[in-house]
Amino acid sequence: MAGHSKWANIKHRKGAQDKKRAKQFTRAIKEISVAVKEGGGPDPESNPGLRNAISNAKGVNMPKDTIARAIKKASGADADNYELVTFEGYGPNGIAIFVECTTDNTNRTVSSVRSIFSKNGGSLGTNGSLEFLFDKKGVFVLEKEKIERNLEEFELELIEGGATKIEKEEDLITVYTDFPDFGLMSSKLEELEIETRSSEVQRIPLNTIELPVEDAKKILNLIEKFEDDDDVQNVYHNLEITDELIDAMEED
I need a labelling partner for 105 at 20 to 30 A (CA). Which of 26, 59, 146, 168 fits? Predict the structure, then answer.
């Protein structure tokens, strides 16, 4: 779990400085749109899903006026009609890949995802075929500099909020909860007035597969191709993210 978290945070830092930002904004706007439509309207005070979506949008440095426009559009008559769809399959060397999409054209998305799998040595499977390999967890990423309190006492507060695992890096803290406790942790952080960089439900692999660096790099390149697709929101996999692999990818 730690390696996946570290790699995700490295990508986040790199992405904020390059062309990835536009894709991050697109994902955030789609998340806001879905939250408004399915979570109970445009008022974040009464819509927890929208509060999380706004928090995630702020985490990728989306301007406040852009967030406001996205909420306004999502609640209007001409709002885009997005549908949540998921795909499951395998990449080379038996690596399981779970793809979550938000799309306004399911046929286009199915074709695109199938093509990415087939052109990169993978295969698209049936829905439900990988469920047993992943566990849904709440994942909250916090910036240490925004936590103006004793960290030991803060950790106790997090445990009260349902934290099952807390990972600390130089400037970030990643907090994991069981899926049913996602709302409890969200409420606890709001109560403590802690702004998250991101807060979302993720699919965490129960077991991971370690590959030689060159083979593992091919998997990460495949993951990136999925992430570059406009319809894709999240990609999960069970590749072991080793320090050696992270070092190799940072050098590329």
Answer: 59
